[in-house]
Amino acid sequence: MKEKVLSEHFSIDNFFKLDVYLKHNGYQAVKKALTELNPEKILKEAKAANLRGRGGAGFPAGVKWGFVPQNGDKPKYMCVNADEGEPGTIKDRYIMTHNPHLLLEGIIISSYCVGINTAYIYIRGEYENIALRLETAIDEAFQKGFLGKDILGSGFDLDITIHRGAGAYICGEETALLESLEGKRGNPRLKPPFPASIGLFQCPTVINNVETLANIPSIILKGAEWFCALGLPNDGGTRIFGVSGMVKNPGIYELPVGTNLKDLIFKYAGGMKEGKKLKAVIPGGMSSPILKADEIDITMDSDTLMKADSMIGSGAVIVLDEDTSILDVLTIITKFYSHESCGQCTPCRIGNSWIKKIVTRISRGEGKDGDIDNIARLASNMVGKTLCPLGDAAAMPILSIVKKFRDELETSIK
Amino acid sequence: MSLEFSDKTKKTIDKIIARYPQKEAALLPVLHVIQKEFGQISEEEEILAASLLGISQVKVREVVSFYTMFNRKAVGKYHIQVCSNLTCTLMGAANILNFIEEKLGIKPGETTSDKRFTLSTVECLGACEQAPSMMVNFDYHGHLDKEKINEILDNLE
Ligand SMILES: Cc1cc2nc3c(=O)[nH]c(=O)nc-3n(C[C@H](O)[C@H](O)[C@H](O)COP(=O)(O)O)c2cc1C
Ligand code: SF4
């Protein structure tokens, strides 16, 4: 059995309740961090752990925290990204449902490290029931003195508020999230300035994904060295991979960073459903470029997937079988991005809606010569030319499909 | 006639507003409460939200129109939201949608004449391992097939 950091206790009854959580070493990490360690030591450990962000971009968490200026007089904020909008992604739902106190511990320790006294958890609006569970967990933690004023006599104060989104994928993008939290439309901001210096309410802000933060307690208890050994030296720990689509056993699989994608599908997720042949895999949520069946003998970590011109993203693996029509996949992808573009930049707004129009026309059997080239041209014109990464997130998977499945797409035209 | 909250809701709203250093930041959570209470965010509800937070109505409108979860018109007692994204489609979401359309006699975007059901299609709900999936109000349902849908919808109050 592989060692699990986040999901080890998922199957214990009522683990989400504080009394049960406490019976399994609960809040030991907070105790250690706040009473035995200082912020500098925690930052050093977080950096050494090479914990890469689990939200999509894979940026090392410790390095990000280090960017927050420590000498200003403005308050600092923590925003936990629980928007989980990337199609295919299911992992944060599991963490928050089954292990909410682990997330709270991660928030407390990282806030203590950066000197933050106010945290918001931005959770997608559809997860209302999970938001309620988190609220209960926060109340319990308050009552036991793990939140609030002078936590465990350390002099450190922290307050956490749950903030529900309202159905907009773009609000998962960190600067759109900040706008949304301020009560506005979720229009991404121009960077720089980066949120670490000017973020929520114009104050220094740390934004981290749920899974990223949920790793912190174990790093505090067991150390950075252990964490790196569990995964890869420069990409530590495990990831909760969400496998969905045409496999026998769709679900979550917490495995070391660097697990082979082929093993994930064929060994852990039981292989293909109904004995079908594998056609392609989307390895890290819908925004990640597609891999063909012969490209999946590859390890799941940020750097390796980047080298393969794809991305580990949120670790959401979508498996397509031989019966899947690539045109259908392209149709759904383009429908999604044209719906979710916030509309601020022309290449993204117009590009996505044009691509959608062309793809929809092809699906109706009215494809024309040159359509595929036009799709590729429109998508290329988005890359690197937009305010936020959604432009790229739409263009890259579209371009990868056009490149790798051009023949199949062309046959839908003829 | 202007809208009135119950005392309990008023207290909830005051508590929400107190969580933010700027009142306006409470707009999304306040709109959620208003929608829960009045079933929609139409003009009257916009005015209410604006007055609670000391912002203009047009600012509220701007926000309401951006987010898909705010209903400009009241939905039925049960709002069925069927996922139409990638994994669910691979696993047969189109058939699921057809079946519900036929069963209820409505298309996405419509409400049954008895105001019991509203049907919508939505993007990824974050329940891909249980595809095809849907939400009925805030309850998730996965691994859908015809029998399961009948069971779920026929057993609602
Ligand atoms: C269009 C778009 C959508 C995103 N959606 C999410 C999301 O739902 N959840 C998330 O954690 N990160 C999401 N991200 C990534 C965030 O912008 C950000 O990188 C992340 O929250 C940082 O946390 P991490 O470093 O811990 O991963 C999204 C990015 C883009 C461009
Ligand atoms: S790239 Fe698209 S989603 Fe991002 S800011 Fe521009 S228009 Fe909005």
Could you please describe the fold and organization of this structure?
The complex is a heterodimer of chains A (414) and B (157). By secondary structure, chain A is of the alpha/beta class. In chain A, 43% of the residues lie in helices and 12% in strands. Chain A folds into three domains: 18-230, Rossmann fold; 238-321, Ubiquitin-like (UB roll) (Roll); 326-413, NADH-ubiquinone oxidoreductase 51kDa subunit, iron-sulphur binding domain (de novo design (two linked rop proteins), Up-down Bundle), CATH 1.20.1440.230. The radius of gyration of chain A is 22 Å and the shape is globular. By secondary structure, chain B is of the alpha+beta class. Chain B folds into two domains: 7-66, Arc Repressor Mutant, subunit A (Orthogonal Bundle); 78-154, Glutaredoxin, CATH 3.40.30.10. Helix content of chain B is 45%, strand content 11%. In chain B, strands 2-1-3-4 form a four-stranded mixed beta sheet, covered by helices on one side. In chain B, helix 1 (7-17) packs antiparallel against helix 2 (27-38). The interface between A and B is large, with 54 and 41 residues. The complex binds flavin mononucleotide (FMN) and iron/sulfur cluster (SF4).
Brief write-up:
The complex is a heterodimer of chains A (414) and B (157). Chain A has 414 residues and is an alpha/beta fold.
Strand line-up of the largest beta sheet of chain B: 2-1-3-4
Order of helices and strands of chain A: HHHHEHHEHEHEHHHEEHEEHEHHHHH
Instruction: Tell me the structural class of chain B.
Output: alpha+beta
- What proportion strand of chain A? 5-15%
Question: What is the first-to-last residue Cα distance of chain A?
Answer: 51 Å
Oligomeric composition of the shown chains: heterodimer
